[in-house]
Structures are given as structure tokens and as C-alpha cells.
Amino acid sequence: MTKTENNKAWFLVLPVFLLVAFSAIVPLMTVVNYSVQDIFDQNNAYFVGAEWYREVLRDPRLHDSLLRQFVFSAAVLLIEIPLGMMVALMMPTRGRMASLCLILLAIPLLIPWNVVGTIWQIFGRGDIGLFGWALNSLGMDYNYASNPVDAWAMVLLMDVWHWTSLVALLCYSGLRAIPEAFYQAARIDRASRWAVFRHIQLPRLKNVLVIAVLLRFMDSFMIYTEPFVLTGGGPGNSTTFLSQTLTKMAVGQFDLGPAAAFSLIYFLIVLLVCWLFFTTITHLENRK
After folding, report:
1. Higher-confidence residue: 284 or 76?
2. Count of structural domains within the chain
3. Can you give the pTM of this predicted structure?
């Protein structure tokens, strides 16, 4: 007796797919339309082709912001991925302490981004902030509002505090999914803790780490609210990232055409880097 498949359940999901597609495609098409036109007002728009793209690609603000963005994302990944993995490895696996650690890790992720920026803005001030006051008391000339190095350190420290929990929770879930039989075999073989991590835990965490890297890269590459509240992009333009440059162009200067072209280039950069990373990881996995 042959068993027939019933795929009618997909019709229940179809409205969701249509709604998501509509809400994504319509704004994207609007941005594409703006990127090829010179818009003077609601009734006057002239087709300019790829002029805005050429202008944006020659804009030194894009080059500087792009360099700062890549440096920031690379620093975030190099700090948060190993640190999140270490936190997950040190967490208890069962009992009330495990539940308490999970709750504490989730707290930074629940705080709104603008509130995170405000917290660290006050925390890092040299006159009323505990962190800034402590550094100045140690004899350090710390002032993130006027020193670019201090501003970068504050933005990085803020992001590490805010998002390392996400990496730790992902790694913890991956560790909890490893069967106990692997650890029993390691104990029988008298494997060291480093050997257990290298041959059992790390291989089982590869897929989780790929997800963590992709999520953190995309989020760090599009960061806006936290550094805007903390430093306002300063001192100077030292912490002005791509999203802030785009906002200044679209909202501050109201250059809708160049801003639309800028946003599409921004989108393609994120998409290209994520695709290259995922393709490389997948290719390396298939070769083994």
C-alpha cells in the first residue's frame, strides 16, 4: 500500500510568506527607484541612471566609514566569539546555578539598544561615571568624548558587554546537545580537558559557531544606535560607521538619491561578505 503525501498544510503558511515578501520587496523597489532618479519634490524626478552610484563610490566618506566598519566588525568577532565560547564552557550544566547563569546572560540582550548606549555614556564619564572616574583615579587621562582611542575602546567594550551573551547562549545550547556517551568515552580514555574540547566539543560546535559569526557580523556591520548615543560618531568622525554616514546623508542632508544608492551598496556588501563566509565554511566542511 503506497502512502500519499498531503502538502495542503503549506497553504496555512503561504499568507505569512506573501506578507513577508510584500513587506520586503516594496521598500526595496522604492529604494532602487530613488537610486536612479534625481528627486526635487514629489512631482519632479529625473532619471539619472548610475550617476548616484558613481558619486557614492568616489565619496571618501564611504571609504573611511567602510574601513572603520570592517575594523570594528573584525575586532568584535575576534573578542566575542572566543569569549562567548569560554563563558559557555565554564557554565554549570544542571541545577539552579545553570538556570541562574542563563538568566544573567539573557539580561543584556533584553535591554533596548538606546538604553545600552545611555548606560555606557553615563558609566564612562570621568566626572560621574564609575568606570571613567576609576580610570582617572589610577592616573590615566581618560576621556572618550575627546580621545579617539578611548572612544573606540568604549564602543568595543559596550558591544562586548551587550552581545557576548548571545554567543555564549548559542555555544551553551550546542554543548548541551552533545551526547553524554562522548564524554564517557573520553573519561575511559583518560582524555585531558583540552583533548575533549579539541576532539569532541569544538567539532560539534562548528555549525553553532557559523551561525554566531554570521549573526554577530551582520549586526556589528549595521550598528547604529549604541555608538550614536554613546559618542555621536565622535570625536570628529572616529566612531562614525556606515549606518551613521547613511543616516546623515538621507536625513541630515536629504540627499535621497545618493542615500538610496549608498543603502543598496551597503546591503550588497553585507550580503556578499556573508555569502563568501558561508560558502567558504561549507566548502571546507564538504572537503572533509
Report:
1. 76
2. 1
3. 0.84
